[in-house]
Amino acid sequence: MTLDRIVAEEEWELMSLCLLLGMLRSSLAMPQDALTELLEVLEGDLDE
């Protein structure tokens, strides 16, 4: 099942699982310091 079909059929739980899997795969490929910085950005903990 492709992502466009998942969206068209409003399979939101499946979509969220696909997004989580994509984020997991991406985070495993990132250098550790980049992952730490990404998590800080997502948490909103960066000093501006």
Can you characterise this structure?
The chain has 48 residues and is mainly alpha-helical. The protein has one domain (3-43). Helix content is 75%, strand content 0%. The chain is built from 3 helices and no strands. The radius of gyration is 14 Å and the shape is elongated. It starts with a helix and ends in a 5-residue tail after the last helix. The mean pLDDT is 87.
List the helices and strands and how they pair.
Layout: H1 3-8, H2 12-29, H3 32-43
Mean pLDDT: 87
Uncertain residue segments: none
Overall form: elongated
Order of helices and strands: HHH
- Portion of residues in beta strands equals under 5%
What's the β-strand tally?
Answer: 0
Tally of separate domains = 1
Backbone CA Rg: 14 Å
Percent helix range: over 70%
| Total of DSSP H or I helical runs spanning 4+ residues | 3
- Could you tell me how far the N terminus lies from the C terminus, measured between alpha carbons in angstroms? 41 Å
Question: Which structural class should the secondary elements be placed in?
Answer: mainly alpha
* Main sheet overview: none
Q: Any key phrases for this structure?
A:
48 residues; mainly alpha; 3 helices; elongated
Brief characterization of the structure:
The chain is mostly helical and 48 residues long. The protein is built from 3 helices and no strands.
